[in-house]
């Protein structure tokens, strides 16, 4: 955390980036060329089918790059959503004689609703449980397709599926699918840089930190899951129109695994990776077709190829390239200058910013926090100290909503936040850092701090991405790391990561900042710098509640101290008096 030098107020020009359409012009030109080629090049039936399959499958795999790549949630039922879209178009156009467009939209809506419903009922689980539930959903959809013959035609499948009048020829339909691929690919690619996309990435990297930075974790996961299902349904509808026939075996669990392998192979975090993975997994079997005369050889080489890629490129082919690109860009990309950070904490209530009364948190029989009262005065530094295991971090976790209080009341700036979830407390003005640093590890320092700046209710950020970047740059510059804004978190030392976490909280312009052992793991120089930083924060009128074991830091920084021991408050008052209090001395040194 050595001598940050760029924390002086700089009159900075406003950050102005080029409009999106101009920045992404090369993409649109490349997409237009592909659509024109698809519409005009003559392919034989075999090549045409491969291209149509690759195009529609890639759209379904884009869905996985949203739910798994961006949001970190597993979905082993993408073939089921693909099947719902395909059967909606198949049955709608063939049995009900409805228009293709109506059926395509209907299929997307059915998939979206099924995805949202599945998400709402399971996404609080996560991990293995989520995987098991999606597998069960996949099996149910397959069973219905096979056995509900009155509805789905059973194992015979649905034939004579219609296409839209506008795209009756195979060639024009392929061009239409390529255009859809380009549009969906663009939206998914761009999603990562939107507020929702950043929230998904934050949830994937660290759910707890996402919650205390104002992100509604559960809702974000549901959006990701529903979006994934929607793209599965869209892809299935296009597939059905293209091949004019669908049957249950095309949408089995094995196909869901194929979709997953495609996304992992290419690089699940990006639609470019999804497109690469889809192309490879469809083309490799075709390239190895000549080996099929030797039983088993084809499958062995195919499997070896997949294992080698995943072994040497764990983030997939595109993940490998993108990582190198991000590191290169951090070196060459100019860092915009930033103005001095302004902190204007809200001030609705009276002199007391945080009023905690009778707060308790019990874990079974253990009273980790037991009837604690704390009153934090506006504009000061208040320390919460106590020996190891006395209940300090538990108190902070209850204050920020990570634990539900067993009893007691918490009022922040006049608002009762006792029963609010973490993201709503953050929206009400609570900012915090963690004892064990919780940053979003796949992001740059700037992206981490942008998520803090995006706090709902943050009046210090104007509209648009440029304003967000400006605010984040101001906060990073304030802690002395503005010049390294574009570097990935992994390239920062431990001390600097602590500073980025503080910058993330400051960017949100909180009413009250909770700091959980910010000096832990720092050397003496870094501690001095931290102390200077605390002084500069306090000078702007921000109220701080700090936990730390470093008594020099605490006694110099805090005007007021509350002491806990065995979960109970044993002293509270002006710093020097509290530190001399016999009960405090005895709690720390042990009584004779
Ligand atoms: N999730 C949990 N489940 C059960 N017990 C817990 C949990 N979290 C904390 N505890 C217990 O609550 C007590 C208080 O822990 P806490 O981490 O709040 O103490 P602390 O004062 O922050 O300690 P330290 O200074 O070492 O961080 C400890 O006995 C701890 O083991």
From TrEMBL:
Molecular-function GO term, any one: ATP binding
Which SMART domains does the entry link to?
AAA
What is this protein called in UniProt? Branched-chain amino acid ABC transporter ATP-binding protein/permease
Q: A single Pfam family, by name? A: BPD_transp_2
- Matching PROSITE patterns: ABC_TRANSPORTER_2
Q: Which domain of life is it from?
A: Bacteria
Quote the subcellular location field of this record.
Cell membrane
Q: Which residues form the ABC transporter domain?
A: 354-591
Q: For this UniProt entry, which residues form the secretion signal?
A: none
Annotated Gene3D superfamilies: P-loop containing nucleotide triphosphate hydrolases
Q: Organism, per UniProt?
A: Bradyrhizobium campsiandrae
């Amino acid at each position: 955390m050595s001598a940050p030098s760029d924390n002086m107020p700089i009159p900075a020009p406003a950050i102005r980036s080029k409009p999106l359409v101009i920045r992404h012009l090369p993409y649109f030109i490349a997409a237009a060329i592909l659509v024109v080629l698809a519409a005009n090049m003559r392919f034989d039936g075999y090549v045409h089918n491969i291209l149509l399959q690759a195009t529609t499958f890639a759209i379904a795999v884009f869905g996985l790059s949203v739910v798994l790549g961006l949001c970190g949630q597993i979905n082993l039922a993408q073939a089921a959503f693909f099947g719902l879209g395909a059967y909606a178009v198949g049955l709608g156009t063939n049995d009900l004689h409805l228009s293709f467009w109506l059926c395509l939209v209907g299929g997307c809506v059915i998939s979206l609703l099924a995805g949202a419903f599945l998400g709402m009922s399971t996404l609080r689980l996560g991990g293995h449980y989520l995987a098991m539930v999606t597998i069960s959903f996949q099996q149910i959809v397959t069973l219905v397709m096979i056995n509900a013959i009155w509805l789905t035609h059973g194992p015979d499948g649905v034939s004579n599926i219609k296409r839209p009048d506008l795209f009756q020829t195979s060639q024009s339909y392929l061009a239409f699918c390529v255009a859809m691929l380009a549009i969906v690919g663009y939206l998914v690619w761009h999603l990562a840089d939107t507020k929702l996309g950043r929230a998904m990435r934050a949830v994937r990297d660290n759910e707890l930190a996402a919650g205390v930075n104002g992100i509604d974790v559960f809702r974000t996961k549901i959006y990701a899951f529903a979006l994934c299902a929607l793209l599965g349904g869209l892809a299935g509808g296009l597939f059905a129109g293209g091949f004019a026939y669908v049957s249950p075996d095309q949408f089995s669990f094995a196909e869901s695994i194929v979709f997953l392998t495609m996304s992992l192979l290419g690089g699940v975090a990006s639609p470019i990776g999804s497109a690469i993975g889809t192309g490879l997994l469809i083309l490799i079997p075709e390239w190895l077709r000549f080996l099929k005369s030797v039983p088993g050889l084809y499958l062995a080489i195919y499997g070896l190829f997949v294992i080698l890629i995943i072994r040497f490129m764990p983030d997939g082919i595109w993940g490998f390239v993108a990582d190198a690109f991000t590191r290169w860009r951090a070196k060459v990309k100019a860092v915009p200058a930033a103005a001095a950070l302004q902190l204007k904490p809200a001030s609705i209530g009276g002199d007391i910013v945080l009023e905690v009364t009778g707060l308790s948190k019990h874990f079974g029989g253990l009273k980790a926090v037991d009837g604690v009262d704390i009153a934090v005065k506006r504009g000061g530094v208040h320390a919460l100290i106590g020996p190891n295991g006395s209940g300090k971090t538990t108190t902070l976790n209850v204050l920020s909503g990570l634990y539900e209080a067993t009893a007691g009341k918490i009022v922040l700036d006049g608002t009762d936040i006792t029963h609010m979830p973490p993201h709503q407390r953050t929206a009400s003005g609570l900012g915090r850092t963690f004892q064990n640093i919780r940053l979003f590890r796949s992001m740059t320092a700037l992206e981490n701090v942008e998520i803090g700046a995006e706090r709902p209710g943050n009046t210090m950020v104007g509209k648009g991405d440029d304003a967000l970047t400006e605010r984040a740059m101001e906060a990073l510059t304030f802690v002395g790391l503005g010049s390294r804004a574009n570097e990935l978190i992994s390239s920062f030392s431990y001390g600097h990561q602590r500073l980025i976490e503080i910058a993330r909280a400051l960017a949100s312009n909180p009413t009250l900042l909770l700091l959980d052992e910010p000096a832990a793991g720092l050397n003496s120089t870094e501690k001095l710098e931290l102390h200077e930083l605390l002084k500069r924060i306090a000078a702007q009128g921000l109220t701080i509640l700090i936990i730390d074991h470093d008594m020099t830091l605490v006694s110099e920084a805090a005007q007021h101290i509350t002491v806990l021991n065995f979960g109970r408050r044993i002293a509270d008052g002006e710093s020097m008096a509290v530190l001399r209090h016999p009960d405090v001395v005895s709690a720390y040194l042990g009584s004779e």
